[in-house]
Write a structure and sequence with these properties.
By secondary structure, this protein is an alpha/beta fold. It has 15 helices and 15 strands. Strand 1 and strand 2 form a beta hairpin.
């Protein structure tokens, strides 16, 4: 419970107990104290203020006598609930001095739609949402143990100290030796930056590399949040088409300053960029001096065949910027990721980050390092991949059976299926109508650049939904599709 802010003026002719009483009375009027919680005892307040208990008792006695405070037997002193004045209605509050709508800065992405996420998705019976995870797969016991161990020596100081712009050296080392090498990437600690999710990596890159005179190329359809981040720098954004082989390389990248792509599982279609196109894009980027940013957000989730090498692993110059994240596997709420790039760039990004949030929480960094070092990270990842593979198989089978147009085959990886219905299907109407039956899906039109995006695409996420709900949920979705298509 918060104590009142009491400043005693010992040179004042006003008695000390009166000053204490006035401060507590003000705290009651301001709503500082909750009537459901006990007020500080006379012993606590006397020790805090450096006065005798008699002084505090006199103040409390006056407050009790005047009805501000009530004494409850064997419980202590509490604010009289009747003394709490209700909050004024909005129309009774003073009019703000500042017109905030006029004062707040306008960003160049103001006209771009936002991808809205339901925070209560778990209350729906059929949540085919993307970007969420199966909470039952989270290694809660192992994570709790690592959080606890991070608060004891020798981990205590790295976990709790202000590291200014530095990252946890243990986590950086493990990222280099375990996570990056698994994707065929060699990097030393000076080439790695820990981020608050891959989105922060994109924001830092935008701050460091982009401005109104620059042009970004990205997949179309593509990651909507990345488009917002790039546009907010003032840079222009150009879309490059995507087919079953991933992004289609243009003839050249001569006027492109930064190329952003998701080659392992293209966002949102989930297709994998072919090896030939990867090599071609690297050649074009090298010839034009284009910065290539590879967002490898869920490469771990491949259910058939061998994973394709990371784009950065094919880059002999080492100039490709690689973004990884712990969010898609462990939890999107943890907000931890990492970035691998040339050390000169990492040095600049670290300085930019320092004046935004200094560094990601040291406690979380050390706990993550302990989780990886214990082997539980990889064990949990293997278990989760197996679970997702079964959900992928069940979802593919359900859409093939219940959706009223030819389906598949679907890319063997990722955490969602990209659906393309007949041209007459309106994904917005479909999402609204399906929600009434407890089925949550994500419309696909928001991922396209341009003024008139196609409306016949949508995403079916399968990571968060219970396996038993997949078939009945897709059956309901199929019925809604038939209704809308007539």
């Amino acid at each position: 419970m918060p104590h009142p802010l009491i400043e005693l003026d010992r040179s004042s002719p006003e008695p000390l107990y009166r000053q204490v009483r006035r401060a507590i009375e003000h705290g009651i009027a301001a709503g500082t104290f909750d009537p459901g919680h006990r007020l500080p005892s006379s012993r606590e307040l006397s020790a805090e203020l450096g006065v005798s208990r008699n002084t505090i008792n006199l103040a409390y006695q006056e407050l009790v006598a005047e009805g501000f405070v009530e004494s409850r037997e064997r419980s202590g002193l509490f604010v009289n609930a009747e003394m709490r004045s209700p909050c004024p209605a909005p129309e009774q509050r003073a009019r703000p001095r500042i017109d905030w709508s006029d004062r707040v800065r306008r960003f160049p992405d103001a006209g771009v739609p936002h991808l809205e996420k339901r925070t209560d998705w778990h209350t729906y019976p059929y949540p085919f949402v993307a970007g969420q995870m199966d909470v039952s797969a989270f290694p809660a016991r192992s994570w709790t143990r690592c959080l606890r161990d991070a608060l004891y020596r020798p981990h205590l100081f790295p976990a709790l100290q202000d590291s200014v712009g530095a990252d946890d050296p243990m986590l950086v080392d493990l990222v280099c030796r375990h996570l990056l090498t698994a994707r065929g990437i060699e990097a030393d600690p000076a080439e790695v930056l820990i981020t608050v999710g891959s989105q922060q990596g994109l924001d830092l890159l935008g701050r460091a590399l982009l401005g109104p005179e620059h042009l970004v190329a990205m997949e179309n359809p593509g990651y909507l949040d990345a488009r917002h981040i790039f546009l907010r720098t003032g840079a222009g954004v150009r879309g490059l088409p995507v087919d079953q082989g991933g992004l289609l390389p243009p003839d050249d990248l001569a006027d492109i300053d930064l190329l952003y792509l998701t080659p392992s599982h293209q966002h949102p279609t989930n297709v994998t960029l072919s090896i030939g196109r990867r090599r071609r894009l690297l050649e074009l980027a090298a010839a034009a001096g284009t910065v290539v940013v590879e967002d490898d957000y869920d490469s771990e989730f491949r259910y058939q065949g061998s994973p394709t090498p990371a784009l950065k692993a094919l880059d002999g110059s080492g100039d490709v910027v690689y973004l990884g994240t712990f969010s898609k596997f462990l939890s999107p709420g943890l907000r931890l990721g990492y970035l691998a790039a040339p050390r000169e760039l990492v040095r600049e990004l670290r300085e930019i980050r320092r004046y935004v949030l200094r560094h990601p929480p040291g406690h979380l960094q050390r706990a993550m390092a302990l989780l990886i070092d214990s082997g539980e990270y990889q064990r949990s990842l293997r278990r989760y991949r197996t679970k997702l593979m079964r959900k992928w198989e069940a979802t593919c089978a359900a859409v093939a059976e219940h959706l009223p147009w030819p389906q598949g085959p679907y890319p063997p990886g990722g955490v969602s299926l990209w659906m393309t219905g007949p041209s007459t299907l309106d994904c917005r109407r479909l999402a609204e109508r399906a929600e009434r039956d407890g089925v949550l899906i994500e419309g696909g039109d928001l991922f396209f650049l341009g003024g008139e995006p196609p409306r016949n695409h949508f995403r079916v996420g399968f990571a968060a939904i219970p396996p038993r709900a997949i078939e009945p949920g897709i059956r309901l979705l199929g019925q809604v599709c038939r209704e809308l298509l007539g």
